[in-house]
Write a structure and sequence with these properties.
The complex is a heterodimer of chains A (405) and B (276).
Chain A lengths: L3 E10 L3 H9 L4 H8 L2 E11 L4 E5 L6 H8 L7 E6 L2 E2 L5 H10 L1 E4 L11 H5 L1 H5 L4 H14 L15 H14 L4 E5 L7 H18 L2 E6 L2 H7 L2 E6 L2 E6 L1 H6 L4 H14 L3 H4 L6 E3 L4 H11 L3 E5 L5 E6 H10 L3 H4 L6 E2 L5 H10 L4 E5 L2 E6 L1 H10 L5 H6 L5
Parallel strand pairs in A: 3-8, 3-9, 6-7, 7-8, 11-12, 14-15
Antiparallel strand pairs in A: 1-2, 1-4, 4-5, 9-10, 12-13, 15-16
Helix pairs in contact in A: 7-8, 14-15, 17-18
Chain B lengths: L7 H41 L2 H15 L2 H16 L3 H31 L1 H16 L2 H12 L3 H25 L3 H9 L4 H34 L8 H10 L3 H28 L1
Classes of the chains: A alpha/beta (405), B mainly alpha (276).
Chain lengths: 405, 276
């Protein structure tokens, strides 16, 4: 059983949703319905399911209906048609008391603009969900203090939200959601209002928390990088419709349509990532002066089946595989004669989008070379992680430490 | 434009004389009795306490609520009211203001909340408020006399009519102004409508509501003066005597006393609003 199951969920805003529904059934588009009737199709027959412990990201630009969709999931907005099942129970058939109970116990939400109660202290905000459930003050505040510690806000219990920075306010928002002990977190553009550095920090912390808590998270964002970073699976929304659901790799490698492809293209462009950003320090770099024995031992040390060979001043000589090294050792052939010299070399400024194609055809890691000096190597893994996580930090420090043995 | 006759005047008089008074006299008499004993109680309480005690209490409250300036003003104001021998009249006026403000607030805040949450209620209440605010106060002073007799009771009734609209409107405004995202967050965590009102909307509206209470109190004070024409005791009576005997000095001393009360009441209620 899925934790959240959404079936054919549709929301039409306007005077006569039934009529809008009929037009939708007839296959009319969102723009046509708007033109004809003035009604807005917020969400158009969205279906997906989220499994327990999964981080499911819904990604779309503003106006794509993603914020409406997440509010349909806890019925803050009444759906026009379709169904939402939480733990197999349909929200549609619930009466007010059951719905409130589901919101209190199962669905906790984190908002873009935090939605904190400005007249209450941080502690009181975090305990708010439990207060609504009628839990005694002492008990709920003890729980709230614990979650505040978990999100790193110990000592701020008595502050008011207005006294905190945006990042800290959102920590309060997350703590409020976690205090409820709900299995499901609904996160509506939760990090979008934060500046980029804080945002990244919060993403990392969310992933940390998630690895400890194993919640089921439905995360809404307009930022593909965020989606790729956080999502176990990602749904891409456009004009109220879900156009593709898949893992980060599936979406990057096999976009369902041009719209998604355009997005994926944007990943490269937007990051302006280059080879130098994602390259890694070669696992072992050794001088051509070293003998076979040394080469084999080095490969053994790092558990690699091949090794790049450099000369003086880091000049790239070629790639040596373990098989060749052993063979050469036995037959006493000089190392320089058995080096694979046609390894693919690119300049450090090569865009990542070009590297993807090269990496597909290349058996060996790509080398980044400038003035015939080896700066770093790029494996397929580092390209993908570069796409998802952004530029590799501290690369320059690492490469500067590469000293030929 | 005289296409047909509308005998509103005769009709109203007829209605009041032949139906309203005979049928509801008992009812209004009872209300009148309750109000009178309430007003008398507050008045005699204020007159029973030595003026020095009241002045010191007001100075302390002023200090706490606003600061040294207002405290000093309250001290000087107290000396002034004593020096012109208008202490008793001032307390009578304050009693009427307190009672009518209490009634206005007790009815106005719930009505304001109702109009904020319910569109139908708003459609009904809003024209009534317009009516109450724009109808010249003298017009309802007349039926107030008929129904409640002369004295402080019709004064309180007339003051209620005159002074309630601001607290209703400001309460309604304050409740409606609660930020949408905060309301949504509260709903997402499963608040009932009552919880939403009690824990989010009302607390956030308090400063606005207090601004309404402040306005209501100021209007009550100004009406308490006008109501002297229907026999309300107090500073208004002093001013009225000054006018009718062309005694400029008496009019001025009474008028200044009203100003003293107004400034102190206004500053205190205002600072309560902004502090919360």
């Amino acid at each position: 059983m899925s934790k959240i199951e959404v079936k054919n969920l549709t929301k039409i805003f306007g005077s006569n949703p039934a009529q809008g529904m009929r037009l939708l059934e007839d296959g009319q588009k969102k723009s046509e319905i708007l033109k004809k009737t003035g009604m807005t199709v917020g969400v158009n027959k969205a279906s997906f399911h989220v499994e327990e412990g999964e981080v499911f990201v819904i990604m779309g630009l503003s106006g794509s209906g993603k914020s409406t969709l997440i509010r349909l999931v806890n019925r803050l907005i009444e759906p026009t048609s379709g169904e939402v099942l939480i733990d197999g129970e349909s929200l549609k058939t619930m009466d007010t008391a059951e719905l409130l109970n589901t919101r209190r116990k199962k669905l906790a939400m984190v908002f873009q603009n935090f939605g904190l109660l400005p007249h209450r202290t941080v502690l009181s905000n975090v305990a708010y969900g439990l207060e609504l459930q009628g839990m005694k003050k002492q008990e709920r505040e003890a729980k709230a203090i614990k979650t505040l510690e978990d999100v790193g806000l110990k000592g701020y219990e008595a502050s008011y939200p207005g006294e905190l920075s945006g990042g800290m306010q959102q920590r309060v928002g997350i703590a409020r959601a976690l205090t409820n002990d709900a299995d499901i977190l609904l996160m509506d553009e939760s990090f979008s209002a934060l500046d980029p550095i804080i945002r990244k920090e919060m993403q990392n912390e969310l992933m940390n928390l998630q690895s400890k808590l194993g919640k089921t998270i439905l995360f809404i964002t307009h930022d593909l990088d965020e989606a790729l970073k956080l999502g176990d699976r990602i749904a891409i929304m456009k004009d109220g419709q879900i156009v593709q659901v898949g893992t980060a790799e599936q979406i990057l490698e096999d976009p369902a349509d041009e719209y998604v492809a355009e997005f994926v293209k944007d990943v490269d462009r937007s990051k302006i990532l280059e080879a130098s950003h994602v390259m890694k320090r070669p696992e072992v770099v050794m001088s051509h002066k070293d003998g076979h024995r040394m080469a084999i031992r080095k490969m053994e040390e790092v558990g690699a089946s091949s090794i790049f060979v450099v000369g003086k001043d880091n000049e790239l000589k070629g790639l040596l595989t373990i098989d060749d090294a052993i063979k050469a050792f036995k037959e006493d052939i000089p190392l320089n004669d058995i080096l694979i010299e046609d390894v693919i070399s690119v300049p450090p400024s090569t865009p990542l989008s070009d590297l993807i194609e090269i990496a597909v055809d290349s058996k060996y890691p790509i080398t980044v070379v400038e003035n015939s000096k080896l700066l770093g190597i790029i494996s397929r893994v580092s390209i993908l992680s570069g796409l998802v996580l952004g530029r590799e930090k501290d690369v320059e420090i690492e490469t500067s430490e590469v000293i030929p043995v | 434009m005289n296409y047909f006759d509308l005998p509103l005047e005769d009709f109203t008089n007829d209605f009041v004389d032949n139906w309203l008074l005979p049928n509801t006299a008992g009812f209004f008499d009872r209300i009148s009795d309750i109000l009178r004993s309430f007003i008398d109680m507050v008045t005699s309480f204020l007159l029973f306490i030595p003026p020095e005690v009241i002045v010191i209490a007001v100075i302390l409250v002023s200090w706490k609520a606003s600061g040294k300036g207002l405290a000093l003003f309250a001290l000087l104001g107290g000396f002034y009211l004593g020096a012109v021998e208008l202490w008793a009249e001032s307390m009578q006026t304050v009693a009427i203001v307190i009672v009518s403000t209490l009634i206005s607030v007790a009815i106005g805040i719930p009505v304001g909340i109702l109009t904020a949450l319910n569109k139908t209620a708003e459609r009904i209440v809003r024209p009534i408020l317009d009516f109450m605010q724009t109808l010249p106060s003298f017009v309802y002073l007349i039926p107030a006399i008929l129904l409640f007799g002369l004295g402080s009771v019709p004064a309180v009734i007339a003051t209620f009519v005159f002074a309630t609209p601001p607290v209703v409107r400001m309460t309604s405004l304050g409740i409606k102004q609660a930020p949408e995202d905060v309301i949504e967050a509260s709903r997402a965590f499963g608040s009932t409508k009552w919880q939403l009102l009690a824990k989010v909307q009302f607390p956030l509206a308090v400063p606005t509501i207090m601004a309404g209470v402040n306005q209501t109190m100021m209007l009550a004070l100004s009406m308490a003066v006008i109501a002297s024409m229907i026999g309300a005791p107090g500073l208004g009576d002093t001013v009225l005597t000054g006018i009718s005997t062309v005694n400029v000095g008496l009019g001025l001393t009474g008028g200044l006393a009203i100003v003293v009360l107004a400034i102190i009441l206004d500053r205190i209620t205002q600072s309560i609003g902004t502090k919360s």
